[in-house]
Amino acid sequence: MRHALLTLALLSAAGPALADSVTDATLRKEALLRGYTTAEAERRFEEYQRNPQAHVEALNKGIGNLVSNMYQRQAAKQAATKKLWDEMWEAIKYGKDYPVYSAAEGAELRKMLEVQLTRDDGGEVLATRRIVEYALHIRPYSEFIFPEPDYAYAVSKLHAQAYGNPFDAWSSNTLARLYLLGLGVPKDEAEAFSLVARCGDALGLPSRAKSRVDDARCAMTKVRILEEGWGVPRDPKKAASYLDMTMERFSTRENPVQPFTREKFESMIGR
Question: Which residue of 10, 36, 127, 160 has the fewest C-beta atoms within 10 A of its own C-beta?
Fold first, then answer.
């Protein structure tokens, strides 16, 4: 009977009151459940007699260690994520492609960019451009970030900067092209023309080279719309006049040795 009573240690978490109330059968069943030997049960009972609160202290220590380890793991994970995001953003800031080769890596890159969209220091413009390029599948690794082109998502990200004041020429031009095709928005050639109507005005003014190129590309979309008569009366003469003005403004800033031809101009700015 003494050895059976030693298994009271197994129920020590419940305290002395429970130990007094349990039956011998309960103790034996508990020992069977835990698989303790008689020697192990005796050791545990003796420890319980020396310090009835030992089980509580052990439990609290165990929980404390568990919580501490959990926070350490979270801190390590956050540090690793920050390092990864910094590497991704550094590549994008300099116009490079950060390589991703799985949906999981693509999801992390997208998450980073969506956080950058909340910036208000100009970084949000860069983040918008890159994530829209991914959504439209016009950038390497796009399929790992958006398995299929998501035109509606692209439109939702372009809208604020395309219609903003000041507006972003790249966003206006890209959204205008989506309106021309009816991708992510109802087809609306008149709205497309409205979006690019302001483009070209910044050419010849002090600005970043990339901004000038974006403005020139946007202005060339306006030229094409006038030439084709998309949403506006076809007007080749007006298109030619606007083309000459666009190239002159661009050349004023670039100061080329010879005047631009249309072919040379389009080759320089790309599409």
Answer: 160
Instruction: From residue 91, give the alpha-carbon distance in Å to each of 44, 116, 143.
Output: 60, 14, 19
Alpha-carbon span 249 to 203, nearest angstrom: 5
DSSP string, 58-109: HHHHHHHHHHHHHHHHHHHHHHHHHHHHHHHHHHHHTTPPPP--SHHHHHHH
pTM of the model: 0.70
Tell the residue number behind the tokens 């080759």, with chain if given.
267
| Domain limits, the chain | 2-52, 166-271
Fold of 166-271: 1.25.40
pLDDT digits (tens, 9 = 90+) for 30-67: 666 767 676 766 666 666 667 766 656 655 666 666 66
Q: What is the pLDDT of residues 247-262, one digit of tens each?
A: 888 876 555 556 778 9
Which two structure tokens, joined as six digits, stand for 69?
Answer: 């380890």
CA end-to-end span of the chain: 92
